[in-house]
Design brief:
By secondary structure, this protein is of the alpha+beta class. It has 2 domains: 79 residues; 156 residues, Histidine kinase-like ATPase, C-terminal domain (Heat Shock Protein 90, 2-Layer Sandwich), CATH 3.30.565.10. Strand 4 and strand 5 form a beta hairpin. Helix 2 packs across helix 5 and helix 3 crosses helix 5. The radius of gyration is 24 Å and the shape is elongated. The two termini are 45 Å apart.
């Protein structure tokens, strides 16, 4: 049993004994084992059904949200800045739920292929254009003419989570976000650097923990503490890594590392 990751399957390692007392114990274990497996299967089915429902609900809710977004662009006089910001917040939270659900069964939804960082960053910048302009944050983009092996949609989501944090925890004046690439023989590192509030040393160790909001999340903005947790999970499943360096009241630098691997050249 100590060598099994699922001890309740211990019966699979035992031959049915021929003597009476051993046979009684074997039959008792069989009934217990059967019941446990039935309960586990029911729980797995319930969880899967719930996830499928959440995904369906998210796709349904996106339809009226897209309609509102089109109305915003076609009739800007009907939408003030607060309404536009709230609409974007709803869209961000809905997307966060979708990727959280998908991250649990990611193998069904992602496709790793050669992708342009320049194009991905362009899409992220376009999506966040309004909030960056309103927040008076300069976006500085350097040397992004690089290709990496990743899922472009997933990476865009990860970068949106990071940009959202950059905006939430910005300083009042002269704020900027700098996105640039460092490259060596084995790695491509995408850096997202800001000059915002920074993160204290105590919180820095916990930023990727589920629901962790930290000091900044309590005093500056409402935060779910889920964005970086999901980003970390997705990076791991995409074969990348994500790290954060920061100094309080000075800067935060989020780096995503893509590893070069000739294995992917087969499907290029």
């Amino acid at each position: 049993m100590k060598n099994l990751d699922k001890p309740y399957l211990v019966l699979e390692t035992i031959e049915e004994p021929s003597f009476y007392e051993g046979n009684l114990l074997y039959q008792a274990l069989y009934e217990i084992n059967k019941k446990v497996i039935e309960i586990i299967k029911l729980q797995e089915r319930a969880i899967l059904d719930f996830k499928e429902y959440i995904e369906m609900w998210i796709h349904e809710i996106k339809i009226p949200m897209q309609t509102l977004s089109l109305m915003k662009h076609n009739h800007q006089e009907l939408f003030n800045k607060k309404a536009i910001n709230q609409l974007k917040s709803i869209d961000d939270y809905v997307e966060q739920i979708l990727y959280y659900v998908r991250s649990e069964n990611s193998e069904k939804d992602y496709l790793i292929k050669r992708s342009s960082l320049e194009k991905i960053i362009g899409n992220v910048a376009l999506k966040n254009k309004d909030v960056l302009l309103e927040s008076k944050i300069d976006l500085i983009v350097l040397n992004l003419n690089v290709y990496v092996y990743t899922d472009a949609k997933w990476l865009e989501f990860i970068l949106n989570q990071i940009i959202n944090n950059n905006v939430k925890y910005k300083k009042d004046n002269n704020s900027y976000i700098k996105i640039y690439v460092e490259e060596n023989n084995n790695e491509i590192v995408l850096n997202i650097l800001d000059n915002g509030m920074g993160i204290n040393d105590r919180d820095l160790k916990k930023v990727f923990e589920k629901t962790f909001t930290g000091t900044n999340g309590r005093i500056k903005a409402k935060s779910t503490g889920m964005g970086l947790y999901i980003a970390k999970n997705l990076c791991t499943k995409l074969g990348s890594s994500i790290n954060i360096k920061s100094k309080e009241n000075e800067y935060t630098n989020v780096s995503i590392t893509f590893y070069k691997n000739n294995y992917y050249d087969v499907v290029r």
